[in-house]
Amino acid sequence: MSQKFVADVGGTNIRVARVTESGVADIKKYMCNDFASIDLAIGQYFSDMAQHTFTQGCIAIACPVLGDQVEMTNHSWAFSQNALRTQLKLDALFVINDFTAVAHSLPVLGKEQVVQIGEGIAKENGNIAVFGPGTGLGVEHITMTSSGWQTLDGEGGHVDFAPVDETDVVVWRHLQNTLGRASAEEVMSGRGLHNIYTALATDANAPVTFTEPAQITEAALNGTCKIAEATLTQFCRIMGSFAGNLALNMATTGGIFIGGGIANRFPEFIQNSDFRARFEAKGQMKHYVKDIPTYLIAEPDHGLLGAAAYLNQNTAS
Q1: 10 is in an annotated binding site
Q2: Is 130 annotated as a binding residue?
Q3: Confidence of residue 154 (pLDDT cuts 50, 70, 90)
Q4: Do residues 275 and 311 lie in contact, with contact meaning Cβ atoms separated by under 8 Å?
Q5: For residues 44 and 30, is the Cβ–Cβ distance under 8 A?
Q6: 12 is in an annotated binding site
Q7: 17 assigned ligand-binding residue
Q8: From CA 43, how far away is CA 307, in angstroms rounded?
Q9: Distance (Å, rounded) from C-alpha 35 to C-alpha 40?
């Protein structure tokens, strides 16, 4: 029987899975550097799963997908979508941005796959937004249309950082002085954590001890550095304000989700932070956002699930 496959491709590894009625199965991870090209990596999965014949697939990849030719940002792989479909002997192949896949996972995630932060109840088929602090800051919206879920692409991670309190102003001023512009990505990413920490340490005339975001997070969670604690506290506040802005922009009655590789390292800290208070702190528009739920994505395979949802929406069973 013919099968569908999905792949989630980053700069370091590629994860491939078989699509099932309930999601994905037979997930295998390969190192990108072990293969000269993407067709060889996926071909290895086909070989490892020789009991199945794959005829349709969807690849979620960490780079812009603007036409037939795809070139990875953080790896040497480059390919033609049409040529790859032919090489893999597929009837249908879709290649989408990795955050497009993340967005398509959101409507299919169950309660056990997310952690809700604060109150709020999602409306069925309501607009949804997701942002993911990681190496950078990805942002995506998804809306229900007559032909199914449709993502609304953009570069929301590069909007201006809008200070809300005096500590934000300290961070904003530091970024203006050092970079010439304060963007959301410069406060909500790995280097964003370090930027906040450096700004607060400099403002307190304290030494800038830590050089890596992981060091800051560890010191904050262990309670061994007050400035690191203040950094993580402000990071959560800034995320809350940003999430509230996304809710206002798109009437995200289906919820706001946090993805990326950073926030999942301290879910309890976020739960106990001012994230939700800052989310709702929209003055006369508080009533507009207070019933909108906010979630942390806890499902590690959400990229593959989103690629599967996209594939199923765009192909016959």
Answers
A1: yes
A2: no
A3: confident
A4: no
A5: yes
A6: yes
A7: no
A8: 18
A9: 6
Q: How far is CA 21 from CA 25, 89, 231, 266, in A?
A: 10, 23, 43, 32
Structure tokens at 112: 């056990």
Q: In what order do the strands lie in the sheet with 128-133?
A: 114-117, 294-297, 255-258, 128-133, 137-145, 148-152
- 9 assigned to a ligand binding site: yes
11 assigned binding-site residue: yes
pLDDT score for 261:
84
At 315, is the secondary structure helix, strand, or coil?
coil
Angle between helices 302-314 and 98-105 (to 10 degrees): 80
Q: Which two tokens stand for residue 114?
A: 């997310």
**Quick one: DSSP state of residue 125?**
T
- Give the pairing type, strands 53-61 and 23-31: unpaired
Which residues is 2 bridged to in the sheet? 53
Instruction: Please tell me the distance from the alpha carbon of residue 34 to that of residue 40, in angstroms, as a whole number.
Output: 9
In sequence order, what DSSP letters do the residues of 179-218 get, joined into one string? HSS-BGGGTSSHHHHHHHHHHHHHHTT------SHHHHHH
Task: Count how many Cα atoms sit within 13 Å of the Cα of residue 95 in the half-sphere of its side chain.
Answer: 24
Distance CA(127)–CA(117), nearest Å, equals 18
- How open is the CA angle 51-9-110, to the nearest 5 degrees? 80
Question: Each residue of 213-243: pLDDT tens digit?
Answer: 999 999 999 999 999 999 999 999 999 999 9
Amino acid at 186: E
CB 28 within 8 A of CB 17: yes
How confident is the model at residue 166, as a pLDDT? 98
Contacts of 278 (CB under 8 A, 6+ apart): 164, 237, 238, 239, 240, 241, 244
In single-letter form, the type of residue at position 287 comes to H
